[in-house]
Amino acid sequence: MIASMLRWLDDRTGCASCLRAALYEPIPGGARGRYVTGSMLVFAFATQAVTGLFLWMNYSPGSQNAYESVYWIQNELTGGWLLRGVHHFMAQAMVALLPIHFAQVVIAGAYRAPREFNFWTGLVLMLITLGLSLTGYLLPWDQKGFWATRVATNLMGLAPGGDAARKLVVGGSEYGHATLTRFFAVHAGLLPSALVAVLALHLALFRRHGVTAPPPRGRADEYFWPRQVFFDAVACLALLVVVLLLVIRFDVGGLVAGKLDGPHLGADLGPPANPVEDYRAARPEWYFLFLFQFLKKFEANEFLGAIVLPALAVAYLFLMPWIGRSRVGHAVNLGTLAVGLAGALFLTGQAFFDDYRAEWTAYRPERFQADADGRARYNDRFRASRDYLAAVDDGRREYARLRELVAYHGIPTTGVRTLIDDDPELRGPRLFRAKCASCHSHVDAEGRGIAGPEPAEGKEGAVGNEPAGAPNLYRFASRAWLEGLLEPERIVGPHYFGDSAQGREDTDGAYPSGGMVEFVRDTVAAFDDEQQGKLKDVIVGLSAEAGLAYQADADREARQSGAIERGRASFSEIGCADCHEWGDDGIDDGPRLTGYGTVEWLVRMISNPEHESLYDGRNDRMPAFAPESGDGKANLLTLREIELIAGWLRRDAAPLPTE
After folding, report:
1. Helix, strand or coil for residue 387?
2. Which stretches of 380-522 are assigned E, i.e. beta strand?
3. 510-551 confidence digits (pLDDT tens)
4. How many Cα atoms are found within 13 Å in the side-chain-facing hemisphere of 294?
5. Domain spanning 26-282: which CATH class is it, in words?
6. Three-state secondary structure string covering 455-485
7. pTM of the entire structure?
8. 3-state secondary structure (DSSP) of residue 453
9. Sequence ranges of the domains in the chain
10. Burial 608-640 (b: 16+ CB within 10 A, else e)
């Protein structure tokens, strides 16, 4: 019965005849492993089509909910991380296979007559595949994809009529909802349809002309079935295994032990796109990095590097069949291909090195002592690498924090941006970088964090000709921070007042503009052991005033041991009360220390340091970010924004429970 049904189906459709023709296609010289790349590319595209269809079922292409839908796929949908991961890494596998397959075609001379059209359709397929990669990069609507796509589309404006083309692609002058919906339509509809049509033509032309590679001597011809089918199947299976390993980040041990951690599964997802804040780690995918690095060589003439030379390179590829008609022309094509691939690999490696320079190499500007220009370039590159690595770390930290917030609050109807904008740990550093980092830094002992203004060449603490820095606020008001402030050598170092007017010595070696600096350098430096003990108690008591969550246990022990009360009693004895008021003790020539380091105290200091409880008209440089009550128009920050900065400085945003 089955045989008769198959005969009936073949009689009506001819499917068995087509299958027989495909399986029993003769292969000159027999089956060979080098022929598998074409089948691997078809398999990769088929996988992309299937996984893309299921992603489509769960994706919402809108600027208000695209990221939320991808987040849900990645973290909530059963198997969503696997679905998204396979789609992401199989796309990268396609791009990696393209130059291999292309090189095989050129080496074998399969681009020459009568196969020119087959070669050209292959080039069109390559361009469509790259277009799919470019348009798909934006769809998660995260910071990395948004800013990388913005950079890429802005390059369109360099070409004649490019502004109109860019607006057509972007959907207007601004990147937003229309941009996302257009990219999604192109990625999920237009380009896949074009690829299927061109692929069908490509395969038809291939079947018309057959295998091109010269058969090896002494080997008989074979049919496609069974050995070549076996080779292709093994190669496709190997490709799938590699992709799955990439999806689980090569955590084979965790797979065997059954302990795969969710955040390490699938494709990366960063924090959601923020159109008003530049992303310093914006990069294209690794297979476009050579173009990104190539463009750096043409900063003075971006039109040449971004438009003219790439267009000439693509034009050369389409001219290869004519150039390679002779033996000499074929050799020229092979040489050009080798140089192009080697150049792309070199530029890709250079791009990675530039980004990770600060992590892979030690900072050694002394190598350029005799070359001021070279030292400046070296410093610029090292600084760019540090900025990139810091942005990557910030992105990972922000995403980890976002997972905590969503696990605790869920995804609000207004989107995850609401959670981010109201969280000190996520919003605080952004506001600090935008408003405070022009003077202050926020870096740990290893230099990680938000750097302040750059020191001048050859000076550890100075910035330019005029002092422009202010204390490092990492763990402000903690015991460690106060200990450094009250240490004679460290107070004039770069992490405290060494970068400011208060930390500058005059010709007599004094600090005329810095009462606190002068007190520490002259008075504290002369303390005996008993006075040093009292100073430690003052530090403990004053730091406890802030009520910092991360030192709550130490404060509790200090309170039980009486150290805090001893600190209050010692406040006057060691001279602090001569300038500061703490509780009912002292005078307020300097800032009052009652409530020191609390949210209220910090909000008051950031809002208006001229306040009578702080510098009372004696503030020399710190600007008032909110001198008007409420959220007046003259204020640089709203009250809520100042509270977020204060909460972040205090590290009030503790991990949230997830159950």
Report:
1. helix
2. 442-443, 449-450
3. 666 567 888 888 888 889 999 999 999 999 999 999 999 999
4. 21
5. mainly alpha
6. CCCCCCCCCCCCCCCCCCCCCCCCHHHHHHH
7. 0.82
8. coil
9. 26-282
10. bbebeebbeeebeebebbbeeeeeeeebebeee
